[in-house]
Structure formats: C-alpha cells, structure tokens
Amino acid sequence: MRTNLVTREGYNKLKQELDFLWREERPEVTKKVTWAASLGDRSENADYQYNKKRLREIDRRVRFLRKRLDVLKVIDYSPQQDGKVFFGAWVEIENDDGDQKTFRIVGPDEIYGRNDYISIDSPMARALLSKEVDDDIVVTTPLGKKEWLINDIRYDTHAE
C-alpha cells in the first residue's frame, strides 16, 4: 500500500511531467505516427511501429499521472516540525561503524532517480518518524536489526 503523500516539489514535478507529455511529447509523436502511416505498408515500417508503441507508453503514463495527482495530498513544511523527523525532513544518521547517510523522507512517487530520497513507507523512515537529534533508532532490515544515531534534522523552507 502506497502512501498518498507528496512534497510540494514532488507534486510540481509530477504535474510538469504530465504537462510535458500531454502538451509537447504526445503531439510530436502523433505527428510522426501520422507521417509514418502515410507512407503505406505499416507492417514493416519501423518509424510507425516505434512511434505507435511510444504513443501507447505516453498514454499509459498520462492516465497514471492524472489518477495519481487526484489522490495525492501535498504536505508543506510547517515550523512546528522543527527539531523532529517528519515528512519532508532531511535526516543525517550515523551507525557505530561511522557510516553516515543523509536523505530526505518523501512520498513513494518521488524517490525514482534519486539516491538521496527514501519513501515514507520504508522501514528506515518509519523508524525515524517523531525522533529528535541524538536519538537512537533501530531499523529491522532483511539482514537483521541495525542501530543508527540521528545527527541532524533540517527542512527545506522554500519550494523548488
């Protein structure tokens, strides 16, 4: 079950993707399909086949984004969050070996293509919620329990 939360930045990026696909890429690919179809035999026309496939991919993604954007709840920063880990926080943690990690807790729709974002639905994020700097947390992973110390918590107080 995916959480329907998203940061303002994440929502804006998904909206931009939808607008780009619908207003720019789809019309361009549609022109290519029409042109390729006008050449005659479609069964051996690579331009037609490729662009028709791309059009289906775009339409599938557009349908997904429209449905998803309707159910997402945008969570904006609030000053009451300062000092504790909540949705949208940048968190720096460290284990006993001195390994450090820094990441932001975001919605599941925002993590793709980012190594510094983790989903609010992840075991790490769940263990961190409501904790403060210098708190120890225990995260259960497939390899067993891991202990971490929270070094820093910060929030982006401006929208990207």
Question: Describe it for me?
Answer:
With 160 residues, the chain is an alpha/beta fold. The chain is 39% helix and 25% strand. The protein is built from three helices and seven strands. It has a five-stranded mixed beta sheet. Helix 1 (8-37) packs antiparallel against helix 2. The longest helix is centred in the N-terminal third of the chain and has 30 residues, at 8-37. The chain is elongated and about 70 Å long. The protein starts with a strand and ends in a 5-residue tail after the last strand.
Give the DSSP E fraction (strand runs of 2 or more residues). Answer: 25-35%
Q: What class, by secondary structure content?
A: alpha/beta
> Number of helical runs?
3
- Counting DSSP E segments of at least 2 residues, the number of strands comes to 7
What's the helix and strand layout?
Layout: E1 5-7, H1 8-37, H2 46-71, E2 73-75, E3 89-94, E4 100-106, E5 117-119, H3 123-128, E6 136-141, E7 144-155
Parallel strand pairs: 1-2, 4-5
Antiparallel strand pairs: 3-4, 3-7, 6-7
Helix pairs in contact: 1-2
